[in-house]
Write a structure and sequence with these properties.
It is built from five helices and no strands. By secondary structure, it is mainly α.
């Protein structure tokens, strides 16, 4: 019986690449969603099919948009600059919380077709939190 050893450096590199892909996907999705909420009014959002915005206060929509843009920047910038890289995990946690709340809202409104996207984005955020904690943490700059 032969055993094969995995190269820990290569394994870490694969995890790092996978995590950067997940972080980029999260950033892209939340930058787009947040920008749309920051630049569109409730009526425009309803016209785009986002029925939840119909009775939502404009200030709440803007707040959600701001939180999404901040989270998108937070999953990239601290890790990329290696300045306080643990903020990347906190940003991913914030995005995961947004997705739990969004899924709850959509379920309450009977908009079940949207929930799978909430689940996927939640899973990506959870993967980033787990991966940057356990598999490929980013060391801060010296």
């Amino acid at each position: 019986m032969t055993t094969t050893k995995t190269n820990p450096i290569r394994t870490n590199k694969v995890w790092n690449i996978a995590l950067w892909v997940a972080q980029a996907a999260l950033a892209a999705m939340f930058l787009m969603a947040g920008y749309m909420k920051l630049t569109s009014g409730p009526a425009e959002m309803v016209a785009m099919g986002m029925m939840w915005a119909e009775n939502a206060p404009a200030a709440l929509i803007k707040f959600i948009g701001l939180a999404e843009v901040a989270g998108a920047l937070g999953v990239i910038l601290p890790a990329a600059t290696r300045i306080m890289p643990d903020l990347t995990k906190l940003a991913a946690l914030g995005l995961a919380i947004i997705m739990v709340l969004a899924a709850g809202l959509h379920i309450m409104r009977g908009e079940l077709g949207v929930v799978p996207m909430n689940v996927v984005l939640f899973a990506l955020a959870a993967f980033v939190i787990w991966g940057r904690t356990n598999k490929a943490p980013i060391a801060p700059r010296d």
